[in-house]
Write a structure and sequence with these properties.
Elements (H helix, E strand, L loop, with lengths): L5 H37 L7 H37 L2 H7 L4 H42 L6 E4 L2 E7 L5 E12 L2 E12 L5 E13 L2 E10 L6 E9 L4 H6 L12 H10 L5 H28 L8 H29 L4 H25 L1
Antiparallel strand pairs: 1-2, 2-3, 3-4, 4-5, 5-6, 6-7
Length: 368
């Protein structure tokens, strides 16, 4: 059965409708729980109101939904197949000579398209919202956050000084070697409480050590004074390598299209890129993982009859299979991040194993 055939369009229409229905129901439930949790967190603080809690809940929503997205697809497929079986439409299709694989071809094609749309179009929006969530969370954690951004443009740091002023540092290039961070093209701008510039410091190179930046070939610019040239200068800071590494953007906050450039940049700088590589290839393989979940749904939902406990078998079997697959994928994912498995194997293994099991079960169903 071709995806663009009348029967294929009919089945896909039901699948998409059920998918959207399940998705919006899950979104509503997650948003409700997120709102309750965010309101609890900001309760008692006069600086944050209900609107801030709404922003937190909405920006956090995409990451949570992404974790349950395969389950949404599986539930939608199970509902679609169950309805077709309950109304005996699937039986009529089989009697007309349509095999299980012919029936599943348009369904898998529609699922693949949904997965590709999710990765290429929805993911960049979700990544932007999650980046916004990280910023909002930082505001909740501290009233005086030290915002950092590590990107293709180098390292940007904003830090409050002991005098109540603000320091903004930019390093155009950097390299991580052993326990030291080497910087090139360093610019430091000191600002007063009204964000007016006090002093500008430019250095050809620098090294981050415990509690200070060791700067070389320094020029100091200050209003009303001649340019001061210094060979070596120690600039106090509260930063260390751990804080800078923790300041990296979470892989979930980087869009699918931007991840390759970020991975190349981090790799050239000497930092570990395992998490970002796992994230990128997981997004690449995610449409196929959705197809695997649909095949698993077909194993439990495409039954000749749903009488005599068939519905219970559908629900319990689907839940067990879904959670087992998800647990296996998360376990292998963690092993990939830790370096216990090659990235490629860690990404593709859950899909291959679950897909092989589902295909074997469907072959047995076809033979019945």
């Amino acid at each position: 059965m071709k995806p663009n055939s009348i029967l294929g369009r009919y089945v896909n229409k039901q699948l998409v409708f059920n998918f959207l229905a399940v998705l919006f129901i899950i979104l509503g439930i997650i948003f409700l729980f997120e709102m309750v949790e965010r309101l609890r967190r900001i309760s008692g603080s006069a600086d944050f109101g209900v609107w801030f809690a709404v922003q937190l809940a909405v920006s956090r929503l995409p990451k949570t939904v992404e974790q349950v997205f395969p389950f949404v697809m599986m539930i939608a497929a199970m509902v679609t197949f169950w309805r077709l079986g309950k109304t005996n439409e699937f039986v009529v299709m089989r009697a007309a000579g349509v095999s299980v694989w012919n029936f599943l071809t348009p369904v898998c094609a529609a699922t693949l398209i949904i997965g590709v749309i999710n990765v290429t179009m929805i993911n960049p929006i979700a990544a932007g919202l999650y980046g916004m969530y990280e910023t909002l969370e930082r505001r909740v954690d501290t009233q005086n956050p030290k915002a950092m951004m590590y990107s293709e443009q180098g390292l940007w740091i904003r830090e409050a000084t002991d005098e109540g002023n603000t320091m903004v540092l930019n390093a155009k290039k950097l390299q991580h070697e052993k326990d030291e961070l080497l910087l090139r093209g360093v610019t430091i701008i000191e600002l007063d409480e009204k964000t007016q510039p006090l002093r500008r410091i430019e250095a050809f190179a620098g090294v981050l050590r415990d509690g200070f930046f060791s700067l070389k070939d320094v020029r100091i610019y200050q209003a009303g004074k001649p340019v001061e040239l210094v060979n070596d200068m120690e600039y106090k800071t509260v930063l260390d390598m751990g804080r800078i590494e923790d300041s990296f953007a979470e892989p979930e906050a980087i869009s699918f299209w931007a991840l390759p450039d970020v991975i190349r940049f981090y790799d050239k700088s000497g930092f570990a890129v395992q998490r970002h590589q796992m994230r990128f290839w997981s997004l690449v393989i995610s449409p196929l993982f959705l197809v695997t979940m649909v095949l698993m749904a077909a194993v439990f939902a495409l039954r000749p009859s749903h009488r005599a406990g068939g519905v219970i078998f559908l629900i319990v079997g689907g839940i067990i299979a879904g959670f087992s697959t998800y647990f296996m994928s998360q376990l292998v994912y963690a092993m990939g991040i830790s370096g216990g498995l090659p990235v490629g194997l860690a990404v593709i293994a859950p899909t291959m194993i679950a897909g092989s099991v589902a295909a074997s079960a469907l072959l047995q169903l076809e033979g019945e």
